[in-house]
């Protein structure tokens, strides 16, 4: 994979541009947003105007500013969840892939995790804890790790069967050496795919949970924007309120998907 | 060996020969009974001729020790008594064919040997000489020729005729057939055996195949010291001393199919304090360099080696292995017992599924046997360095992420070898015939050609200085010319590094080329063992290539 | 002539009666009527419904109480008449002899005495019987209830709220053990036909033998809907509480839209037992920091009013209009906070539905230098934390402010789930005690006024706003607002009496 030609498809660049652009918007939110999105800067339900390009929401807050800050939250959560869950998956997957004893225990745990309906967990947790951003990240990560952990484990098992690993063992390689030198490099495509999938899922699920009001509605996120907007659907405010948010979610997910497909296609070609 | 003076013809005890300050022969002892042929075998320069001359009392160096001919000490015998004996009861065929007088016809020179000892008439002497020359195989018309008119082989026959015309009781033959073509060699050997059935013969030769055909017993000489001594056939079948085996393996006549292996190292480098073979011995231990090994009784012969001869580097004892499959248990190996000796080449043959690769994996300790054990000559910590498996499919055996450099570096990193790696990596790459340019080193290994990859895995196996390489199907699936390159490479490694090879192959020609022994594995068991070395017995010499 | 005039007067009177009574004017006969709601409120029987207004309301369709309330005040229900004897501390009720349980058995005084004993034994969260000593059935249809002390709210809180249980069904069993099928048998105007918790669906059928008159809706349903506005527009339902913001739209679509006080207040509960909220100065600073007007504008979108610091709304007959009215003043708040350099960050517990208010409060407090972290949680979890005192600030609301001012006892110092638990002020404690005992309305008024004043000064909690309730319905049922709310102040217009054509 490494040192292969870095020729990437156009899809990748589109995806990177989308994801990167949205990331940039999120990062620069404090400077780009015309208002503090928590301050009341207009009457409730103002239609788009010069002062408020996308109008105001139910609380008289600027929707455009909310959109920037909301993107920031969505991206933070998705990146953190993807990173955390993949890290967890990596540790568990490696432990399971490397040690048969750990494998038996961990696979049980993974099965247990996978058999639990995720939404139920969220509902249960949200009853007793405020689902603020850090908690949401932890919870989503806890729900997201088992699947990639399994994939990582099976990738390690198949790498373990490789002759080159047998050869390394023939030279007396320790498990640690094999892990760092052979297992982890071979995991790159799995990790990448897993990471991007989790990014996508996190954006979606965050939005979904916030929309349902399960997560903390005082956090500015695309999901909470939808949550509030959905309560006033009869006011006909979808064009300036719901549509921009939906577009944000769609473009982000599209960006991740494009990157993922491009890289996956490349790594497949590379492995062939 | 018990000393029985009644039956012994020649008794040499503790013969030591020193030229200047250099001892070339040390503590040589020998006993020849009437009718016995003893072969004294060694590389040239090992002191064979000096011993012959020493016994004859003709040696220019300082000779000590005793040589008793029929209980008479040849060293202390009055000069004319010795001269009477020499050439009559006791004769030596000299190696040097230039020893003839250039201005007399050869017939006269042989006749003179008769006249000197038997005082017969000149005519009778000439007559005897003529018929003797003919029986030695010189064409009658050439009897009157001058030495320079004869070929080397013919001159040698003249020398033989001169030495033997008086039918001595003890004959010392120094390289008697060295100048003969293969057919003539056989004729001469047969002639000697037939003519001197009751005499004692000391056959000095560097050519094991000659000794094999004539001698009842062999004495292997290395650096003027006896390293192995025993029955000819036993020694040929199973050489015990590393030097003996090396001699055998370098002999073309003994190895018609097998690739020849030169004895590694410089033959003139002889350890004077310790074992003479030590500088070239792949299994030497520190002791070998400073302590002299003495002859000891081993395997029905006498061997001078600190390690009791060629050691088994790797021994599998009653190894069994079965795999559980869905349908039940498959017994892959059953009660396998085998050894791989230092420096030897072993081929493991058998049909697909016979358990070859399993055995390979068990011997390299990549797989644990269910029963039995694999013991090695190495410390456990050293095992991984010393035993290397070379996989059949090099591409599978190299990480797709690795460059050429990383591939060869890997074993060094794993065993935490001391830096720098650079020289060692380049050295092994050169050894297997791969480039060592920066460009090449940083290429992703998988982008190399199949041939380069084969060499690369070999280089990787060599970088830890292994003593055993288990090569799994090294030539399978590659074209013949390339296969022969790989084989030559393996043999070169064996020759230059003294590596033991276990070649897993299904190709009998490959097996014969690389192996001292061929093991047939079938149904998880060793069905037969064939020494690839084809002994040419002296009774029925094999037809040799002309 | 006189006779003619008398006849004429009589006829006119009759016509007037006919015309003026909506039931007569437009005789109702509705086959099916669905009231939408966003939630399920539990099995509609005592002990089983969720102890909140809508749950009680559904139960009330099946179970009758001794007396009831209409738009003007108390009206007979199971009891045709009642009287209080102050000396003996007794209430005597004469029961309607025609009353029948849904299974056909007559309702007797024994059922009433049984209910009181049973509910004393198995407390029913809705009813507090601590001041009731017991009851005696003095005749088949007459029951005497003995109080332990004068208790002003008795008629509203007990007689007008306590569902009478059929003795023959509940006797010898516990609320935990009773057979669900039988637990739904009452004597009210509707018979429970089906209940589906998952769907939040309640199906009631008109009780054909209802003792107080004809039930005009054959099939009454309550149905959980995701969006009442759209459900109304789709005609899936005929009535629902709707967001006030949708009122204009629904009115345009021909719906009858009525807004009314809810007798409900959203409060910022302050844990006055924790530092620094235990100091009045700090609580005052909080009060000055909050822009309650902005809250009404941005959270209620104007459909509500800033709450009185004495808790009772202006619509309540017990409202004290002379309380200090404190407007937002961040400068004042900062001034007060000077005594608290670097106050610790506070957490604010808020149910999701109050998240906008929480957001505003966080901003307002942030403006004066008090850092607030909002934790949104499920309401029940917050309730539990409030009860344990494990919070700094919490957003919590309660209704019941339209009825008897006894509510002040419950919410200020009582053990009620959402009580402010403020017992620090001995004078307030004494007044609250008197509040329950004063049977003389004038004296009681003075007491209640003073309670409100102390609350406004001590600020154990900050009353934020009174939202308005907007109900939209198709106009066929003459829903009305019950005086002081149904039972103990449920602010919905869905009073079952609107569905009954009473026998003359
Ligand atoms: N006359 C001599 N003077 C000095 N060194 C000799 C002499 N003859 C032989 N040597 C040395 O003695 C060693 C043994 O020689 P030689 O007996 O001829 O061996 P071989 O017969 O086995 O070839 C050799 O190193 C050789 O160089
Ligand atoms: S092992 Fe030692 S003693 Fe034996 S042949 Fe090698 S060097 Fe000589
Ligand atoms: Mg010689």
What does the model show?
The complex is a heterotrimer of chains A (272), B (546) and C (504). In chain A, helix 1 (10-27) crosses helix 3, helix 1 (10-27) packs across helix 11 and helix 10 (222-230) packs antiparallel against helix 11 (238-271). Chain A is built from eleven helices and no strands. Chain A has one domain (3-271): MetI-like fold (Orthogonal Bundle), CATH 1.10.3720. Chain A is an all-alpha fold. In chain A, 74% of the residues lie in helices and 0% in strands. By secondary structure, chain B is α/β, with parallel strands linked by helices. Chain B contains 17 helices and 21 strands. In chain B, the strands form four sheets. In chain B, strands 6-7-8-3-9-10-12-11 form an eight-stranded mixed beta sheet, with helices on both faces. The radius of gyration of chain C is 24 Å and the shape is globular. The model of chain C is unreliable at 12-25 (pLDDT under 50). In chain C, 31% of the residues lie in helices and 23% in strands. The chains are: A mainly alpha (272), B alpha/beta (546), C alpha+beta (504). Chains A and C meet through helix 5 of A and helix 8, helix 11, helix 13 and strand 17 of C. The structure holds adenosine-5'-diphosphate, iron/sulfur cluster and magnesium ion.
Low-confidence runs of at least 5 consecutive residues of chain A: 1-5, 268-272
Count of beta strands of chain A:
0
Mean pLDDT of chain A, nearest integer?
Answer: 86
CA radius of gyration of chain A: 22 Å
CATH topology of chain A: MetI-like fold
Bound molecules: adenosine-5'-diphosphate, iron/sulfur cluster, magnesium ion
Strand tally of chain B is 21
Helix content of chain B: 25-40%
**End-to-end Cα distance of chain B:** 41 Å
Largest sheet of chain B: 8 strands, mixed
Percent strand of chain B equals 15-25%
| The CATH homology group name of chain A | MetI-like
Compute the number of structural domains of chain B: 3
By CATH, the topology of the largest domain in chain B is: Rossmann fold
Percent of residues of chain A in beta strands? under 5%
């Amino acid at each position: 994979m490494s040192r292969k030609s870095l020729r990437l498809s156009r899809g990748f660049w589109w995806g990177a541009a989308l994801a990167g652009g949205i990331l940039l918007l999120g990062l620069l939110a404090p400077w780009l947003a015309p208002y503090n999105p928590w301050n009341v800067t207009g009457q409730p339900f103002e239609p788009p105007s010069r002062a408020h390009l996308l109008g105001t929401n139910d609380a008289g807050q600027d929707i455009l500013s909310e959109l920037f800050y909301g993107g920031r939250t969505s991206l933070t959560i998705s990146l953190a969840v993807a990173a955390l869950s993949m890290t967890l998956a990596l540790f568990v997957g490696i432990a399971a892939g490397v040690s048969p004893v750990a494998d038996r225990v961990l696979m049980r745990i993974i099965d247990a995790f996978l058999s639990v309906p995720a939404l139920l967990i969220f509902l249960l947790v949200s009853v007793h804890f405020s689902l603020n951003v850090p908690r949401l990240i932890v919870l989503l990560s806890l729900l997201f790790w088992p699947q990639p952990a399994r994939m990582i484990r099976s990738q390690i098992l198949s790498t373990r069967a490789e002759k080159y690993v047998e050869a390394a063992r023939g030279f007396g390689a320790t498990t640690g050496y094999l892990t760092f030198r052979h297992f982890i490099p071979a995991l790159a495509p799995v990790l990448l795919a897993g990471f991007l999938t989790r990014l996508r899922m996190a954006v979606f699920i965050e939005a979904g949970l916030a929309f349902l009001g399960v997560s903390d509605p005082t956090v500015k996120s695309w999901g909470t924007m939808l949550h509030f907007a959905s309560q006033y659907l009869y006011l006909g405010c979808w064009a300036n309120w719901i549509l921009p948010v939906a577009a944000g979610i769609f473009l982000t997910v599209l960006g991740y998907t494009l990157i993922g497909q491009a890289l996956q296609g490349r790594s497949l070609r590379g492995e062939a | 060996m018990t000393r029985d003076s009644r039956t012994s013809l020649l008794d040499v005890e503790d013969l030591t020969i020193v030229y200047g300050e250099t001892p070339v022969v040390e503590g040589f002892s020998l006993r020849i009974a009437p009718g016995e042929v003893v072969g004294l075998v060694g590389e040239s320069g090992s002191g064979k001729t000096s011993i012959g001359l020493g016994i004859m009392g003709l040696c220019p160096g300082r000779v000590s020790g005793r040589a008793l001919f029929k209980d008479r000490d040849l060293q202390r015998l009055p000069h004319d008594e010795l001269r009477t004996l020499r050439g009559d009861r006791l004769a030596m065929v000299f190696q040097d064919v230039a020893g003839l007088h250039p201005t007399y016809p050869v017939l006269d020179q042989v006749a003179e040997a008769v006249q000197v000892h038997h005082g017969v008439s000149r005519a009778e002497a000439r007559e005897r000489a003529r018929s003797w020359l003919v029986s030695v195989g010189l064409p009658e018309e050439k009897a009157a020729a001058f030495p320079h008119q004869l070929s080397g082989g013919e001159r040698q026959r003249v020398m033989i005729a001169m030495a033997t015309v008086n039918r001595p009781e003890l004959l010392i033959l120094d390289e008697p057939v060295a100048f003969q073509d293969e057919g003539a060699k056989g004729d001469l050997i047969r002639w000697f055996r037939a003519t001197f059935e009751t005499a004692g013969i000391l056959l000095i030769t560097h050519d094991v195949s000659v000794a094999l055909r004539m001698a009842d017993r062999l004495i292997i000489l290395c650096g003027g010291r006896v390293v192995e001594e025993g029955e000819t056939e036993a020694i040929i079948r199973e050489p015990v001393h590393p030097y003996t085996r090396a001699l055998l393996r370098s002999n073309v006549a003994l190895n018609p199919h097998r690739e020849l292996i030169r004895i590694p190292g410089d033959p003139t480098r002889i350890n004077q304090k310790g074992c003479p073979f030590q500088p070239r011995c792949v299994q030497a231990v520190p002791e070998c360099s400073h302590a002299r090994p003495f002859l000891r009784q081993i395997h029905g012969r006498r061997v001078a080696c600190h390690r009791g001869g060629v050691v088994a580097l790797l021994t599998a004892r009653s190894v069994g292995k079965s795999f559980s499959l869905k349908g039940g248990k498959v017994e892959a190996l059953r009660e396998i017992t085998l050894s791989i000796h230092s420096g030897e080449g072993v081929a493991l043959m058998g049909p697909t599924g016979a358990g070859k690769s399993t055995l390979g994996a068990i011997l390299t300790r990549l797989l644990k046997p269910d029963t039995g054990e694999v013991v090695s000559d190495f410390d456990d910590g050293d095992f991984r360095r010393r035993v290397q498996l070379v996989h059949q499919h090099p591409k599978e055996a190299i990480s797709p992420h690795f460059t050429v450099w990383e591939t060869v570096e890997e074993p060094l990193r794993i065993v935490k070898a001391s830096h720098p790696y650079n020289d060692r990596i380049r050295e092994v790459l050169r050894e297997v015939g791969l480039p060592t340019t920066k460009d090449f080193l940083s290429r992703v290994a998988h982008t190399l050609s199949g041939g380069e990859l084969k060499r690369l895995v070999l280089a990787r196996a060599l970088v830890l200085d292994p003593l055993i390489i288990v090569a799994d199907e090294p030539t399978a699936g590659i074209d013949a010319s390339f296969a022969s390159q790989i084989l030559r490479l393996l043999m070169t490694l064996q020759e230059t590094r003294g590596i033991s090879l276990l070649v897993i192959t299904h190709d009998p020609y490959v097996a014969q080329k690389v192996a001292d022994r061929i093991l047939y594995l079938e149904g998880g068991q060793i069905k037969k063992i064939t020494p690839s070395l084809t002994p040419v017995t002296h009774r029925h010499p094999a037809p040799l290539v002309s | 002539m006189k006779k003619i005039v008398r006849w004429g007067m009589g006829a006119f009177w009759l016509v007037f009666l006919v015309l003026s009574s909506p039931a007569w004017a437009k005789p109702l006969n509705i086959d099916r009527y669905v009231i939408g709601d966003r939630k399920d409120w539990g099995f509609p029987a005592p002990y089983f419904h969720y102890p909140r207004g809508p749950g009680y309301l559904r139960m009330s369709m099946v179970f009758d109480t001794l007396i009831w309330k209409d738009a003007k005040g108390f009206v007979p229900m199971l009891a045709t008449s009642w009287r209080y004897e102050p000396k003996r501390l007794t209430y005597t009720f004469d029961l309607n002899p025609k009353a029948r349980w849904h299974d056909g058995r007559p309702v007797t005084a024994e059922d009433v005495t049984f209910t009181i004993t049973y509910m004393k034994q198995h407390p029913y969260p809705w009813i507090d019987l601590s001041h009731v000593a017991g009851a005696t059935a003095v005749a088949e249809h007459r029951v005497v209830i003995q109080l332990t002390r004068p208790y002003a709210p008795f008629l509203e809180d007990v007689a007008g709220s306590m569902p009478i249980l059929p003795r023959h069904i509940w006797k010898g069993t516990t609320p935990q053990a009773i057979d669900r099928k039988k637990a739904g048998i009452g004597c009210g105007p509707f018979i429970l036909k089906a209940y589906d918790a998952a769907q939040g669906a309640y199906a009631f059928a008109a009780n054909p033998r209802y003792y107080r008159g004809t039930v005009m809706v054959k099939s009454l349903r309550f149905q959980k809907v995701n969006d009442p506005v759209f459900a109304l527009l789709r005609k899936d339902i005929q009535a629902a509480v709707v967001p006030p913001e949708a009122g204009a739209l629904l009115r345009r679509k021909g719906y009858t839209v009525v807004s009314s006080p809810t007798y409900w207040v959203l409060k910022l509960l302050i844990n006055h037992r924790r530092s620094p909220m235990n100091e009045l100065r700090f609580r005052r600073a909080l009060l000055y920091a909050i822009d309650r007007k902005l809250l009404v504008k941005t959270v209620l979108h104007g459909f509500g009013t800033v709450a009185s610091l004495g808790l009772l709304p202006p619509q309540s007959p017990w409202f004290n209009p002379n309380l200090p009215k404190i407007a937002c003043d961040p400068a004042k708040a900062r001034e007060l906070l000077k005594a608290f350099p670097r106050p610790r960050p506070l957490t604010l517990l808020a149910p999701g539905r109050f998240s906008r208010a929480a957001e505003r409060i966080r901003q307002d407090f942030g403006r004066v230098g008090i850092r607030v972290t909002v934790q949104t949680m499920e309401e029940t979890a917050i309730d539990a934390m409030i009860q344990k005192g494990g919070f700094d600030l919490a957003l919590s609301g309660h209704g019941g402010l339209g009825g008897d001012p006894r509510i002040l006892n419950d919410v200020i110092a009582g053990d009620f789930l959402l009580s402010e638990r403020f017992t620090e002020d001995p004078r307030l404690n004494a007044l609250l005690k008197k509040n329950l005992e004063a049977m003389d309305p004038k004296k009681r008024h003075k007491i209640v006024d003073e309670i409100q004043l102390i609350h406004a000064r001590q600020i154990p909690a900050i009353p934020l706003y009174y939202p308005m309730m907007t109900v939209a319905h198709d106009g066929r049922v003459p829903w009305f607002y019950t005086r002081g709310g149904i039972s103990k102040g449920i602010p919905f217009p869905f009073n079952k009496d609107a569905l009954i054509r009473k026998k003359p």
